[in-house]
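Quick entry, no commentary yet.
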Amino acid sequence: MGLTSGARLGPYEIHSLLGAGGMGEVYRARDPRLGRDVAIKVLPAALSTDASRLHRFEQEARAAAALNHPNIVAVYDLGTFEGSPYIVSELLEGATLRTKLEDGALPVRRALDYAVQIAHGLGAAHDKGIVHRDLKPDNIFVTPDGRLKILDFGLAKLTQAAVAAAGGSIAATAAPDTLSGMVLGTVGYMAPEQVRGIAADQRADIFAFGAILYEMLAGARAFQGGSAPETMTAILKQDPPNLSTVYQHIPPTLARIVNRCLEKDPAARFRSISDVAFALEAFGDAGSATDVRAVDHRGRSTRLIRTIAVAVATAMLLGATVLSTRLALGSARSEQLAVSRVELNLPPGAELNIQSAGSVALSPDGTTVVFLGTVSGRRQVYVRRLDQFRGVALAGTETTQTSFFAPDGSSIGFIGPDNVLKKVSLSDGFVVTLTRNADYHVGATWTDDGRIIFGRAGSLWQIPASGGTPEKLTTPDSTKGELLHGWPSAMSGGTVLFASVTGTSLNAARIEALLPTGERRVLVESGTYPLYAPTGHLIFYRDGTLVAAPFDAEELRLTGPAVRAVENVAVASITGMPQVAISASGSLLYPPNDAGTSRLVWVARDGAEQPLNDVPRLYRTPRLTPDQSSLVMEAGGDLWMHDLLRGAFTRLTSENTGGNSFPVISPDGTRVVFRTLTGMQSLPTDGSGQLRPVSGSSAISDIPTSISRDNRLLTFVRQTPDTSGDIYVVPLDSSAAPSIVVSTVGYDGGPQFSPDGRWMAYASDESGRMEVYVRPYPGPDRKLLVSTDGGTHPLWNKNGAELFYRSANKMMAVTVTTGTNITLSTPRVLFDQRYSFASNTTVANYDISSDGQRFVMVKDESDSGRLNLVLNWFEELRRLAPAP
């Protein structure tokens, strides 16, 4: 295509050419809408000649964009320009693995580290049913800090058509399909089934992975002949030179792992890439034992480490599946401890509620698990003792969003969407209200000196666990760019760890310690969600992974580098924070990251369901544009536009901020208002223009919900230090201050202007449970009860003649007659089916078609019925990040 500097490719401004080859050109470009640099790969126009294949490519690329894994390049956008498909992705600094291999073999430990990262990235893709089909060193990028990123998922689907059109050239990058006899792939890394033109699955990626690992260790390709046909013959009939025989420094066990990846028969390879990663990590425990600085004083334990790890890797090689138990590696004591992995099932029909920090908790002694579960739309705290078979719901904990244990394990603190902080005794079930206006988004902690630390309006506050008057502990320093303080975690002696968000992204945060004297000390410049382990480690969240670093608790400083400790951890849908808990006894609890997968579906008034798209993501608050052509929704902490006609996804807001949510589309369809970390913002729906702050909004606690039909007024919910949730209205295009509309003793939220602008529907728990009300707007100050048996998520039919709301899993409808007064019919059930409720109990997690006949619902399709529990996890922690 040959784009020059300054040229435009859709909304993107081309800066420079980064590289070119048979698969097109890669450019450095600028996205002026979001103010960031991106990489754009422009593919040859010939690759788009097959419309059906191009569509399948777009589907797979969109699915890859939803992976959100640290070892997979992030895909932002895709489209066509002058007949050429293009992909927009994150701009990476560094070099390809091919460049790294130009100097020969890598050190064994570095090759292992790279291999494990590749395996984890592939595993995340395979778990979503995505196969790369063209894995090679050229498609793996190494950043300056040693992070590997897999590139070009989905390209093989598209390139196959070009190969067929060119006569099936074996030199092109391509992938197999159902056409018999077509030879597709990159020579040297194709699996035998690809060479034969047989349909391939994820085991072809395992073969390519084995070829890459062989090359990293040997400095030479596993299969390479004088010509492409000779290389293909070698793949089919020959084995590469044995690594441990030719290269004496490569251990036989590692060589056997590589050989099993390179088996000719797919059935003889590892069953999954996750098994490969496990075998490599187990081998690494043995192979690196001499570098753990503990050999001399561990003696027999070190030999045990090597024996166990090699045995585990060998068992994997022989086809054994390790399900739940792995022996501890690297204990500082001479006795043998077991690191056991178990899955805890939730009660029948229960769905894990992943909304904010604190969806799971562990008692200090590790014997009791707490999780937030939803059954038939009813969310409660569940307690599961490990000597029991199932969890039991705690009365009085309905709608809880955040939970945490007392230091002695006798009580649980919790916060609900009404922002009321309470505690419940596990011995007698007695519930005590401590204070209102606690922010459940940012968690809470219970100190060993009898205080509960919680967030409120961006600051940290404390209250005696016995009750009393809250006291402010911290105030964000705006001169240093601080926006909010949150995710507190208590250490012994009164010190509290917390995260200070310092930008427009939750990733732009640092970890600090708040000393009993009031002094603040910065511990980590980039990280959030800190936890302290008594092994002498600081655990925190960074770049989508839970990491750990050796930590001196007395001097409050890191004493070693941070290493990846836990991956595949589910994150909160509202903040992007990890759902993880540790106990003082050494256990680790977390739900896997597939606990938040959902799909969008159309649901008719009679409950008939029809898929709306086929891209699994963690969707929230879908909103139809007025012309019904697109949806705007939140996924992964950012807003996306989904073109319902083309099936394309376009990101509207910056990636990985963790705070962009609750979109509201103006009735004229020109703008979307949404919540950010710095208050409500407005953005044109066509992607042009810049973000514009909403007048009078400056905090994450402001949640927009509805815009009046004349596009002039915005109604939203605000939490302040003195209220749990009140309803406000503000003019959108003026500097006028917001005015309060509804303020009760309860939590008031989800306000919705009626189509004629004369009425406002909302939900409130002022009666003791959530109900839906309607009131005149702007007055007088009176209200009518709409729901009769609990309700939330109110929305108007576009014709103004109906109000919809949800009661448990039921979609309810009420006929509305307006005139001088308003008349409401008895609520009737439209359908009774389980769909996601999202993070706020008052803001609708659905939308309605313009004719009122169909609903866009979020259907949970994740494996959200289980929790992962790792017993004696501290033994692994000591091994992963040895303390000096």
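second:
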Amino acid sequence: MNHAFISKSSAALWVALGLSVQTVAGATFIQNPSFEANYNDTWPHYGPIDLWNAVGGTGINDKSGPFHNTSAQIPDRTRAAFLQGPCTIGQTITGLTPGQTYCLQFFYDARNCCGGTVDLTVRLDGAQVDRIVNIRPTPTLANRDTLYFRNVQITPAADTALLEFVTTTLGDATAVLDAVSLTPCATNSLAVKNPSFEASGDLPDPFGIAVGENLAGWTIGGEAAVGVVPSGQGVADNGVPPDQDHVAFLNGESSISQLLEGLEVGTEYELSFAYNQRMFDFASLRVSMGGAVVFEEDVDEVGVGNPYHTFTGTFRATEISSTLLFEQTTPGQVVLLDNIGVRGASRPPLPCLDISPTVAEIAPGQTVQVSVTVPGELTVAQPAVIRLRSPNPAVAQLGGVGDDGTLALNYAVGETKKNVDVMGVARGSIRVEIVDSAGLCTENDLTVTVLNSFVRNASFESSPIPAGVGYGPIVAWDATGQTGLNGPSGPFHDNGSIPDRRQVAFIQGAGSLSQTVFGLTPGGNYWLQFYYNARNCCGGTINLQARFGGTTVATVAGVAPGGYVFYNASFSPAAASGLLEFVATADGDASLLLDGVSIVERTPGDVVLQNPSFESTGIPAGVGYIQPSPFAGWTTSGGYGPNLDGVGPFTDNGDAPEQDIVAFIQGSGSMSQQVSGLTPGQDYTLSFAVNARNCCTAGPTHYAVSFGGVELVNEDLTPVGGVNPYVAKSLLFSAPSADGELLFSHQPPDGDRTLLLDNIRICSGDCRPAPRLQISYDAVNRVTRLSWDSSYSGYRLQFRASLSVGVWADSSGIPLVEGNDLVVLDDVNNVATRFYRLIQ
């Protein structure tokens, strides 16, 4: 190409005269795409993100972390965003062309810390366009030192759209995000990373990417500077690029390259790009694919206000992956690049790795078998290996793991399915890590929750309602006949209000639901509780039997529609484990509905309470909120729900006494239920376990308890801390009537405080544990001070000289009331030894 000197002089004259050479380009769709702005220097760098709307624990990290894994390279420049816990970041995009296909690209990772798991969902105007499940931290994967890359094709319906990234977490988990860009693309486009150089945003250094920094998607080569600049600024001093604001520049003998994947050998592809040069330069551009040159020319600037040069050519793929390389070959010159595209048939992606089931609830010592299936295309000609790992073997273990803690599943040629045994160890929840997927996409995985609760998935909430009318498997339950799940919209649940949360199980016609219950005390006394109803349809009749260990413990003939009915059945197991069954027999097309199943140990003299230890509600979703849905058996207000004891987040201290589930009331609120079957004037004992969350406002909270409008407790409460037992309360009261409201009221003085409740009982008579006798000695006055809780007013203090010999005698001291205590001062002058007891 002949460079005319006059054109250079003319351009120089324009500059000397101060005339503008500013060019015009379309605005960048994504603002602050590389998250380089508003870095908070205060560790660990929480804070808002410029030009992004953020909700949750968000901020910016550099290569030192701590949320960004320091062993992984940041894809673009020096910083990346983090989303800790459940978060959303988003921004409104303008200037889109409705109906145009765009490629949304981003790089992502998960923090290699803290035991939780994180999913990342992408939404456009509220609709999900992508979801990545259980992101594994890059440092846990072999041969990976950079973040994952995602390319998603979207088609907006309007010229403005809200783009959002949403994290869903279990435990303490964090997603990392970088280099977000949006570029027009054809539906048959191959994924060229950062094709229009919009992922970096505006660089503060006009001379290029600093040494040691990265340009998203591209490998920088050569000795001179490479960078990104807005059109019309710095070296991009002429011409109008075809796509958005930014262009890449190659200064001196430098290059950028990237590996293109998904090519089909022997297929012809179309390569296109836009190019230009800095004014007055004599740049040369060479472009090659897999080492074969497809373009090589001297470059002439297009001039102010003119569009960039464009090239469209073809190449034939010789490998399934090949390197695309752009080189500026003349020393001291600058070439400008934009809008790189490759179009043609791409190798279709293989189907994803399939894991089934995806959710399991098991008891300690119980094993669930899981199938791991690879597509036939993967092993049609060669073997493959999938590697799995339990992130916490103290909760659940995989059978057959190696010394490195991973399970290698070796698929022979033609083999597609392997079974894995997962055994529960102790209470908790894990998501099985897919350490190596053999290159397959992973749209599902396995979450295993290990429970001490007698009944697992008690409220049928642990998996979503299957498609259609709801037929499908139910987590933790074995089934015969036509069974499944329904929500408020039915069709099998077509009458009454769901007793607990949002889902119920159904048995259509003859069939059963069953599971093995573990951990019972042989010969003990237990309550089986559940709620039942019948579909208001189709003219048939249905009967219900509940069995344990083969023995019928409840029978309901002719279950009728009209609302859910509570049932409480007492039984005594012959062994520590047994099969719990709900068996339906039907005449015609009739359906049984079940919800809120639980087993709790109670004495024969206990007054029946519904869901007294909150086990009917099952394990929580998210942090545990279920409002405004019902909490089985209880009328509730405020922020309420279930939490797993010791797992939290509300149950962050203490050891609850009964099974797994604890109820929480966050902020001002209450839980109450109407209790019946009492004898007016008779004494009863109310007992319960109570605690407070050890977060987020210092100092005690406050709560009150009443029955039938009579206040029984009104006191401050501080967290027990650590793994100390919950505070056990036992209160004697006289029944004012045959029924009454039992009410627990949380009355926090200020701030964010949470009340925790468990193991609520009402028994007939005074069945409180013996009062605790406090003893201290006044050596000066030779007086022993003995005190006990004043609610035990019917107890007498006795003493004798020997622990095992002699007659107990009543103390002559008269109990005095001091605060909440009864106190006796006993004169022990000239007494060598004295033993005391309290007796009714």
